[in-house]
Amino acid sequence: MTLVMPARTDGKARTRFSVRAFLPAAILVFMVAVALAAPWIAPFDPLDQDLLALNQPPGPEHWLGTDHIGRDVFSRLVMGARTTLLVGLGGAFAAFVFGAGFGLVALSLGRVSEAILFGAIDLVRAMPGVLLALLLIVALGEGVGPVTIALGISFAPFFAYVARAIYHREAAKDYVTAAQLFGGDPLHVLRVHLAPNLIGGLVTQAAILLPRCIVTESVLSFLGLGSSPDAPTWGRMVAEASRYIELAPHAILAPVLAIVLLTLSLSFFGDNVRRTLDPLREEAGS
Amino acid sequence: MTIAGPRLSRRMFMASTAAVGFSGLLPHVSFAAEPARGGVLRYATLGLDTADPHRHTGSIAVQQIYAEALTSIAADGSVEPFLAESFDISPDGKTYTFHLRDGVTFHNGDVMVADDVVANIERVKSKVTGGWLASAVKLVDTVSAPDARTVVLSMHEPYAPLANLMSELWIISPKSEGWNETIKTPLGTGPFKFGEWQPKVKLVAPAHTTYWRKGMPYLTAVEADLRDDVDKGLALRAGDLDIAYIKPDIAKQLATDPNFKVSPLKDAAWFFVAFNNRKPRKPFDDPRVRQALSYAIDKNAFMKFAAAGGGVVTNQMVLPGNLYFDQATHDADAHTKANLDKAQALLKEAGVDPAKETIEFVSWQETYPQVIVQMVRKLGFKVNHVALDDIGAQKRLGQYDWDMNCMSSGPRADIFLRYVRLMSDGPNPVLWGGIQDPDLDKLIKAAVAEPALDKRKALYLAAWQRVMEKYYVVVLGLSANQIAMRKVVQGYEPGFTWSPNWGSGGVAQTWLAD
How is B449-510 classified by DSSP, letter by letter? Predict the structure, then answer.
């Protein structure tokens, strides 16, 4: 038997069309589609250099111009969407696994394991996310994998705290007590009964954290600590173009606008997800 | 042979300047106006690693504001007397006699005497390990002070670079705090004192009022900006700096701005590709593969990019016009342009399928190595490019777990300081792949020990020919580092090295027009 507390009861509100809900989702779908189809969309190899056409303005051949090594900005922007989204999504997922996954298992196993794990998480939380990610990259090395793991560890506490709050709220409810009285062991109760009721809050948290992961990835790339130095990522494009902002403003404008658009869309999207799934807000009548 | 100075004709200075960089953009140095006194010069080129001048690890610009040596390097690269007013070299090249200048005082007011100089040489010999200066001083048998103004160095073998290298053996008062271990407050003889130092931030150096060059310095103080994460070009334009080291592309922009003067250092930085020579893995231990990789590189295109249109494409570590430059070798350079067909043929001959090989490529976090990486990729190799900061790159290169790099190395006081990095036991050889070649060592040692200039040049050239044949290092070209200054800065012209103070020029004679 599985007991699930419905997240929302207002079916009308969920199906109502809203520009605020639709536009961010549409932009996100568009960006994901562009990232997936990047190799077919990009007119040039994003690594190809034309040393005779440095910092060229937008034109018929190079739609968004070229950068300081003569690389096609549009191709790098399109291909960079892949890395930026991959690392952002991967970082958020890793944070979900590290924070919510381990957190919930520790909570289910009792107060000792909770105290130990959350003590460690408090230590991680004590450091600013970007600084911790920097330290982890120094330890793990550069590249997409280490950056993803570093983001995951840095943002894991956010999931862990949310998971703990929701867990304690749900664990005090009758359906959990009933499941325990029926003889369910802690992990069984977590997996079968609690998890379906926790997932809404955690997905909301993921949607809120995703833009932070993307911005942090961009910051790390800006600092030269992301992936390979010539790999196109939006953060690195901003960093490289910043030296030539007077000569070639287009080269910095394109990735900056892309980052702003993506993070704003994700923020609105996260907010919409929270409004839709967060049982607490629903109970409060919001 | 006796060498006395200082001397630098304007014609010589202009001629040497014209050889490098933005030669058509020479500054308008004022020789006529009466220097104004006062003002603080805000200066930013390199950093300052340590307060102990004898223990420097590479950044050797700022400390020369407060520390001086017996000799210095003139704008044309020749050695000129500095704290010594002249020096003699015996015919066998083993004995150097330095005649000290009269009236030189340390920053604590003490007069510099020969015993102070002897103490500095002994300190470097006994307390400093590693570095080219230490290895040179270890060849000194005896150092003595027959009188208060004479210092005699006796070497157990001839050592031609000594006079030039003495320009980096800074004479500090033995009364300096930390003399027996690490000097914390150096008492030098320079035109400015070691004032307030905030590592990685700034050094404020107030004027030395009893400086030996009468009437100098004109400035009240020099404030050296030591931050390495600032956009110096922007700071210069914002009026936050007076003199700054800037990248070639920024130099090109500022050179057309009437509010600034842009001028190169007179020696150039050399750009090169080096292979892992100490622990090469297959197939990069095969000279044919190295040769193929070299044929993938378009040196002309690279240098145009790296030097923003300036620079010189060559296969040697010095500029045309330099004493050690060999025109015939330059003319025979097979790698001025890329030849992918020849590269592919060489790979085929070596039995290498580039698609199956990944090159571990290490560089600093600069843009120019990306150009080389992309050129190499065109040959079909996969490249794992790792770009690191200076310390990280040195550490990684020292592990010898890489295949190829692209680096540059700046001006040096003597050609030997470039060759010594190619020796099996050379100091800090990692940028050049840690060459282990006894035959090359012999050639360089023979050159160092040869007092006759023509023979020395021939020996150095033979050593360089061996480096090229073995494809240890492939020179891409040379480009002068560019210094920009606000127009109010008068009397300053960049020298041969990074030094901002030398016998015939520098901050001692610099003044601000407003």
Answer: T--SHHHHHHHHHHHHHHHHHHTSEEEEEEEEEEEEEETTEES----SSS-SEETTEEGGG-
